[in-house]
Amino acid sequence: MPTYQHFQEVKKAVPLPDREKIGVCLTCRYWQVEERRTEMLAPRLGVCVQPDLKAFGLIVSGSSACNQWAEKPGIAAEAKAYAEQGEDA
Ligand code: SF4
Question: What is the pLDDT of residues 65-82, one digit of tens each?
Answer without folding.
Answer: 999 999 999 999 999 999
